[in-house]
Amino acid sequence: MMACGSPSTEVVDEFEKLVIRMNPPRVTVDNTSDMTATLVKVDSANKYGTLLEVVQVLTDLKLTIKRAYISSDGEWFMDVFHVVDQEGNKLYDGQVIDRIELSLGAGSLSFRAPPESSPSSVEAAAETTTTAIELIGKDRPGLLSEVFAVLADLKCNVVSSEVWTHGARVAALVHVTDAATLAAIDDAARLDTVKRLLRHLLRGTARATVPSASSASRPRSGATAAHAPRRLHQMMRDDRERRERDGAGGEEGRGGGGAVVEVVECKERGYTLVNVRCRDRAKLLFDTVCTLTDLRYVVFHGTVIAEGDEAYQEYYIRHLDDSPITSGDDRRRLARCLEAAIQRRNTEGLRLELCCEDRVGLLSDVTRIFREHGLSVTHAEVTTRGAQAANVFYVVDASGEPVTAQAVEAVRAEIGEQVLFVREDAGGVNTGGGGGPRSPPGRDGRRSLGNMIRSRSEKFLYNLGLIRSCS
Questions:
Q1: Considering the domain boundaries, does residue 123 fall inside one?
Q2: Residue 279, beta-bridge partner list
Q3: What average pLDDT does the segment 248-256 reach?
Q4: Per-residue pLDDT, 370
Q5: Burial of 269 (0-12, 13-18, 19+ CB in 10 A)
Q6: Whole-number Å distance between alpha carbons of 360 and 218
Q7: What is the CATH number of the domain that holds 78?
Q8: According to the UniProt entry, which residue ranges have a biased composition of type Low complexity (predicted)?
Q9: pTM of this prediction?
Q10: Which of 86, 117, 148 is the C-terminal boundary of a domain?
Q11: What spatial distance separates the first Cα and last Cα of the chain, rounded to whole Å?
Q12: Tens digit of pLDDT for each residue in 363-382?
């Protein structure tokens, strides 16, 4: 039997592997060059997707990227990231630094090893077996409560979940096990029942995807779970574009978190120039790089700068086939996709954290109490660490307005004031005020690289050719 794939592709893959073995990645963590941030420098043989994987690792380690300088022309990838911890401090914890070097070093990234063995997650969790459920459809108050109630009734234990809402649409990725065995659910009839009931909850507005019995028992490691945000971006983008084709309209942007995205030709250098200006928040760089990568664009040069509460990003990109974007429709599509990716992650509402002993049906009970007190969940991150549940919810009232203090106190009294906490969100919650980003200095409100290069380090990188201006 002939092997799948063309011989030329196999030769290219083997050559790339040889180049990587001869030039293993070099990772340097520098705490002396910058007074306010730790520099993470990554030099490696280049391959499509390298930038996204590096940004994914830094994001999973809960680091904030304040500045980034990207250069990947030719066969070499050379990036510098200025990072701080969640408190805005430089990295002095030796364990965190070791994790950076281990996660980004030789043999670590997934294109150097099978994806399931890539340690890109923060937690060094043992491999577990779960069943993944994908939901996408029209959002409404109480929907999440109903979803978790159905899963509890069907004896499904929720191990982890991430839920996003944007523009009256909801997307959820839920990992479950059998409540009795804590293993993946592999009974075909039971999986069909799960799918049927969840589709009924969505009321025909979209899809509930449950794996077949043969694939449901496939092992899923902590590294796989770490890519939930990328999958949710893909789900919501595909849903928006499908609805646009059907004439139903796409995601509607929220006020207060708007992004200004420009996609223009840069003919003299053979690139397409992408400018992004928006309110800064955690995971912003991941969202933009993820979108560019999944749309099959390659970032050759780029600069990312966060100043105060605003972020400025500039990328020089080409198609994966090394051609710039020549179609006006393609440029408009890319701009819309970037705007949507940024806006759908602008978490809206009051942040509540639930930390308690995990049990089957916990999420069903908690979200039922939310619903009974008029709270609607806009975003949720559900994780299980051993026997402990560590869950984060962003809530508004049923009409989308901020929740009242009385409602919050009533919910805490019923769930438990010692396990449910109100937290200030350091990641840039969109509270609905203040409008979009302010216009930065520069001609016509644009923030070009020529205007952004000011500090010695930026000028140094510019002179080395790591930053190129089209202005």
A1: no
A2: 310
A3: 54
A4: 97
A5: middle
A6: 22
A7: 3.30.70.260
A8: 209-226
A9: 0.80
A10: 117
A11: 56
A12: 999 999 999 999 999 999 99
Residue 207 reports pLDDT greater than 80: no
d(CA 141, CA 377): 8
CA dihedral 443, 445, 449, 452 (to 10 degrees): 100
pLDDT tens, residue by residue, 423-455: 876 554 444 444 444 444 443 444 444 444 444
Q: Which residues of 287-307 are buried (b: 16+ CB within 10 A; e: fewer)?
A: bbbbbbbbbebbbbbbbbbbe
Rg of the chain (C-alpha set): 23
Over the range 381-411, which residues count as b (16 or more CB within 10 Å of their CB) and which as e? bbbbeeeebebbbbbbbeeeeebeeebbebb
Task: Answer yes or no: are the C-beta atoms of 337 and 294 closer than 8 Å.
Answer: no
Eight-class DSSP state of 348: B
Structure tokens at 166: 């944007």
Residues 223 and 363 placed together within one structural domain of the fold: yes
Helix axes 188-202, 143-153, angle to 10 degrees: 160
| 98 plus 32 within the same structural domain | yes
Statement to judge: residues 405 and 454 lie in one domain: no
Provide φ and ψ at 191, rounded to 5°.
-65, -40
Query: Using 50, 70 and 90 to split pLDDT, how confident is the model at 21?
Result: low
User: What is residue 321's DSSP assignment?
Assistant: T
E-only strand ranges, 63-155: 64-71, 76-84, 128-129, 131-138
pLDDT at position 457 over 90: no
Residue that is written with structure tokens 């680091």 in the block: 63
Which ranges constitute the DSSP H helices of 105-142? none
Query: Residues, the chain, total?
Result: 471
